[in-house]
Amino acid sequence: MASGNSAIRGSRVGAGPMGEQDRGFHADRVAVSYWDAQGNETVRYFAANLPEEEIPETIDSPSTGLPAGRDRENPPSVSKLEPYKTHLAYVKERRSDEEAAALLDDALTQLRVRRGQAPKD
């Protein structure tokens, strides 16, 4: 008699009545290759009976995180990222005090009109 946490000899832990065919490992599949801008290839498998329009044209490459497409010669370009802005760059973009006051007055006027209140002049 088995005691403790030992499995019965010759059995696999987690083995059930289903075989590999029941799990879909032997289903008809189609291999689709995707390439990213660095030339890395990623192969994804799709069901053979899946319509062509349901197979995605682009995916995210798992190795680089870049977009990958099905065209090897023309992979999707790397998206251009905005460079990090310093606090000083944001300060330079700020509006002048006069522009800010005019924008605030305009926003308050529009809000009062929506609420049905007459603007106070």
TrEMBL record:
One term of GO molecular function: bacterial-type RNA polymerase core enzyme binding
Region entry Disordered, spans: 1-21, 54-82
InterPro entries: RbpA_sf, RNApol-bd_RbpA
Biological process according to GO: positive regulation of DNA-templated transcription
UniProt KW keywords: Transcription, Transcription regulation
Gene3D superfamilies, alphabetized: RNA polymerase-binding protein A
Family, similarity comment: Belongs to the RNA polymerase-binding protein RbpA family.
Assembly mode: Forms a complex with the RNAP catalytic core and with free principal sigma factors.
Function in brief: Binds to RNA polymerase (RNAP), stimulating transcription from principal, but not alternative sigma factor promoters.
Protein name as annotated: RNA polymerase-binding protein RbpA
